[in-house]
Amino acid sequence: MLYIDPSACIDCEACVPECPVEAIFHDSAVPERWADYVALNAERSAALKETGGNITEKQEPKMGCGK
Ligand code: SF4
């Protein structure tokens, strides 16, 4: 799973139409059933930055991404 860092995101929404499973929403438009993911993205992206798990370079699509 990938996480979006809300402290780095500039809300350009360029990623929204690119997500093959339509899993990305502007934080003001996240469906209620997925609202918990807003905090999860903040928590996990902060934790991953501390451990070096953040993505800083373009990578090839992972298996199963639908592309
Ligand atoms: S592409 Fe998506 S994650 Fe990146 S800055 Fe734009 S809205 Fe944020």
Can you offer a commentary on this structure?
With 67 residues, this protein is an all-alpha fold. It has one domain: Alpha-Beta Plaits, CATH 3.30.70.20. Helices cover 24% and strands 0% of the residues. The chain has one helix spanning 36-51. It is globular. The protein starts with 35 loop residues before the first helix and ends in a 16-residue tail after the last helix. The protein binds iron/sulfur cluster. Iron/sulfur cluster (SF4) binds at residues 4, 9-15.
In brief:
The chain has 67 residues and is mainly α. It has one helix and no strands.
What's the main sheet like?
A: none
Note the run of SSEs as H and E. H
Number of helices: 1
Going by helix content, strand content and strand pairing, the class is mainly alpha
Shape descriptor reads globular
Annotation, overall tally of beta strands = 0
CATH architectural label: 2-Layer Sandwich
Radius of gyration using CA atoms only: 12 Å
Task: State the helicity in percent bands.
Answer: 10-25%
Uncertain residue segments: none
Q: What ligands are attached or bound here?
A: iron/sulfur cluster
- In the CATH scheme, the class would be Alpha Beta
Number of domains: 1
CATH fold annotation: Alpha-Beta Plaits
